[in-house]
Write a structure and sequence with these properties.
Radius of gyration: 36 Å
Number of helices: 4
Strand content: 25-35%
Helix content: 25-40%
């Protein structure tokens, strides 16, 4: 009888499949159990997470960054704005008529441009769009306390005129940061405001 029991036990041991042996060893490995638990949690979160998120799948976030402009008056009809940080083109505005005098600049950078027909354009400094057209008044009345530019340049840049081209060089490293060549050679001395906005006029006025 004892021999029969021994034979049955041996037969039972032979019936254990390789998969069962793997699972038996897997259950004994605590690190493996932790790993599979993490994978299951990540898998579930990938499906449940979007329902818990306060933001939509296609929602985008924007940050408003104020970058000082460089205004270039190209002739009497075009005004070009560049970023002072990298010299990149920002916007260009072609006026409906010739300017009768230089634009008056408000403290926030807004341009008030008198035209030959007597109107004054109010131009947004950030995108160059015309905000309003004023009639029957003067730029002095619209901007009683304008910005008066002076020779004060950005602390980290040396900006010079080289053969009618603006060249900005990093003061510490000596490497050129950016340059700009207008539609016509730039001819006036540079001047800048307290925020580092540069102003210059080209050969066409």
């Amino acid at each position: 009888m004892a021999d029969m029991d021994t034979i049955q036990e041996q037969a039972a041991e032979r019936i254990v499949t390789p998969g069962q042996l793997v699972m038996k060893r897997f259950r004994r490995n605590k690190l493996a159990l932790v790993g599979i638990a993490i994978l299951v949690i990540m898998f579930l979160f990938s499906f449940v997470g979007p329902f818990l998120s306060p933001y939509g799948e296609y929602e985008m976030f924007y940050k408003e960054i104020n970058i000082s402009n460089i205004y270039l008056y190209a002739g009497n009809r075009d005004i070009i704005a560049l970023n002072i940080a990298d010299g990149a083109f920002r916007w260009r505005l072609t006026l409906p008529g010739a300017m009768t005098e230089s634009p008056r600049i408000a403290r926030d950078g807004t341009l008030y441009i008198p035209l030959e027909d007597g109107s004054i354009l109010q131009v947004n400094a950030s995108d160059g769009k015309v905000l309003e057209t004023h009639s029957g008044t003067t730029t002095e009345a619209l901007v009683p306390d304008p910005f008066v530019p002076e020779q004060k340049f950005p602390a980290d840049l040396d900006v010079v005129m080289e053969d009618g081209t603006l060249v900005a060089t990093n003061r510490e490293s000596g490497f050129k940061k950016w340059d700009f060549m207008g539609y016509a050679p730039l001819v006036t001395d540079l001047f800048a405001d307290e925020t580092g906005v540069l102003y210059v006029v080209d050969a066409e006025g």
